[in-house]
Design brief:
This protein has 505 residues and is of the alpha/beta class. It is 31% helix and 24% strand. It has a single domain, classed as 3-Layer(bba) Sandwich (FAD/NAD(P)-binding domain). The protein binds flavin-adenine dinucleotide. Keywords: FAD, Flavoprotein, Oxidoreductase, Tricarboxylic acid cycle.
């Protein structure tokens, strides 16, 4: 082992969209800080943030039915939908700030307008969708949403989905034109290019193997240079663990009390990708369905028009499955290695409680190509197997933890920021709503880890994100202004010039 010990101010572990976002915030707020990044792969945005590994939905609750559950009294709960929409507005403002200052260019390379639609079949589901529409469309954040159960209108909205469909049960959809498709891989690479231009040291093919506290209160990060095999030590007063699925094992190495009694449950994914440009051209929307009874929220099927490398393509999925790996490029031993004496009971309790989920994921994993095609045909009745290829998506590691009221081993579907009590280290766990809310989540990291600097930073943050600290629900006028301004800056009002579909890959 080499005995080099290098000191810096901030260490970011992982070059995904989360580290990228935090790095840019720190660079803008405190340019004097020396930032060093370690990423074990050869480039930025290669794991979950990569465009082929996630669904690229700018989550703002315009179409995702799991954000608007039905309450026992039959009314629709829209609290979560409002929260997620508000969080996405922070991302839109931050990205607009970067574009308006020319810190990143050509926003169409990472964000585009795509109608967001929800599609359901069956009397009860149509009833639910109608109630959801009635509740949401009165709210300023969801203005412009349309509902239809008229097959003619639906054919106009969704020609590919309606072609060859028999109408033996009611069908309905909602549509809102202001939805977005976000290429989080391209965004991540742009943010890292910007950081590099500002002198941030980015070390690719460097894998973090250990994190220890030094006697003088710094964090020592031990990193293996995968080119040479040498291990180097780097120290810093602040470390962010943005390792995606790889964050949990690194957090466990810190030994902080906050890292105890937490486990991870990996969920793998597959997408079907259309290789027929004529089929791709017939569809232009992100269409979310309803999760089957007993299925977890991340398994909601959707048919997505995407822009990848500036070409139009069509993806269906993701099909969830079980894999013991924490990263797509991870090891089959990841899950087992994450079980420690302090989280064993938590993991066992979750295992006992989540048998139906495990069973569901295993059933999904063993689906044959024909069975997957049957699921696709619920969206595209005339789908032909030769038009679709299967690609492996990213891994999601859902957090398992004990709840505050003492319930052991509860599976969480959201994101969790775990910080040491003194704010010197933070880790991001979980995967949903994911990259769309990176700005909101990284603001939380700043608030929890740099409380002593927030008075100084707040005016700067407000310069980047005018709604920071302000409730958009209570300020519909500000919401409208932000929508208008970010739509213009990000070029989301530019229709036409739609690139040609991606042909067979
Ligand atoms: C199938 C699927 C669909 C999704 N769909 C959406 C969607 O539609 N919309 C949305 O907003 N979000 C979506 N998400 C979630 C979103 O992709 C993630 O929340 C987001 O990309 C996480 O970013 P990250 O930076 O935390 O992790 P990542 O992008 O995974 O980056 C972590 C990085 O850390 C590196 N790393 C890990 N361990 C180490 C180590 N020991 N040393 C050095 N480097 C290390 C990894 O190589 C990786 O590059 C989806 C995710 C999946 C899997």
């Amino acid at each position: 082992m080499s005995n080099t010990q290098r000191r810096t101010d901030v260490i970011l572990i992982g070059a995904g969209v989360m580290s990228a976002t935090l790095g840019v915030f720190l660079q803008e707020l405190a340019p004097e800080l020396r930032i060093r990044v370690f990423e074990k792969l050869a480039n930025a945005g290669e794991e979950s943030s990569n465009e082929w590994n996630n669904a690229g939905t700018g989550h703002s609750a315009l179409c995702e039915l799991n954000y608007t559950p039905e309450k026992p009294d039959g009314t629709i709960d829209i609290d979560k939908a409002i929260k997620i929409n508000e969080q996405f507005q922070l991302s839109r403002q931050f990205w607009s700030f970067l574009v308006s200052r020319d810190l990143i260019q050509n926003p169409q390379n990472f964000i585009r307008t795509i109608p967001h639609m929800s599609l359901v079949q069956g009397e009860d589901n149509v009833e639910f969708l109608k109630k959801r529409f009635n509740t949401l469309s009165n709210h300023p954040m969801f203005r412009g949403m349309e509902f239809s159960d008229d097959p003619e209108k639906l054919t106009e909205w969704l020609p590919l989905v309606m072609e060859g469909r028999t109408f033996d049960e009611p069908i309905a959809a909602t549509k809102i034109d202001s939805g977005t498709d976000v290429n989080f891989g391209a965004l991540t690479r742009m943010l890292f290019d910007y950081l590099k231009s500002r002198g941030v040291e980015i070390n690719y093919r460097h894998s973090v193997e250990d994190i220890l506290r030094t006697s003088d209160g710094l964090w020592e990060v031990r990193v293996r240079d995968l080119h040479t095999g040498q291990v180097q030590s780097h120290t810093a007063p602040f470390v962010f663990i943005g390792g995606g699925g790889g964050s949990l094992p690194l957090l466990q190495k810190t030994g902080i009390p906050e890292s105890k009694h937490i486990g991870g449950f990996p969920v793998s994914g597959l997408f079907m990708v259309c290789n027929n440009s004529e089929v791709v051209a017939k569809h232009h929307a992100k269409v979310y369905g309803k999760a089957k009874v007993g299925a977890p929220p991340m398994s909601v099927p959707h048919l997505d028009t995407r822009y990848i490398n500036n070409e139009k393509t069509l993806l269906f999925g993701p099909f969830a499955g079980f894999s013991p790996k924490f990263l797509k490029t991870g090891s089959n031993l990841d899950l087992i290695a994450s079980v420690k004496p302090n989280n064993l009971l938590t993991m066992l309790a979750a295992g006992a409680k989540e048998m139906s989920l495990t069973k569901y994921l295993i059933q999904q994993l063993v689906l044959s190509d024909d069975e997957r095609l049957d699921e696709l045909r619920e969206f595209i009745p005339n789908a032909r197997s030769e038009d679709w290829d299967v690609v492996t998506a990213g891994q999601r590691v859902q957090v398992i933890k004990d709840t505050e009221d003492g319930v052991k081993g509860t599976l969480q579907f959201g994101t969790e920021v775990v910080t040491a009590a003194d704010g010197s280290i933070a880790a991001l766990l979980g995967a949903s709503p994911g990259a769309s809310t990176a700005v909101h989540v990284m603001l939380e990291v700043l608030e929890r880890c740099f409380p002593q600097r927030m008075n100084e930073w707040e005016p700067k943050i407000k310069g980047m994100i005018p709604s920071y600290g302000i409730s958009l629900v209570d300020n519909p006028k500000l919401y409208e202004e932000i929508q208008e301004q970010t739509t213009a800056t990000l070029g989301l009002d530019q229709v036409g010039a739609v690139p040609l579909p991606l042909t067979a890959r």
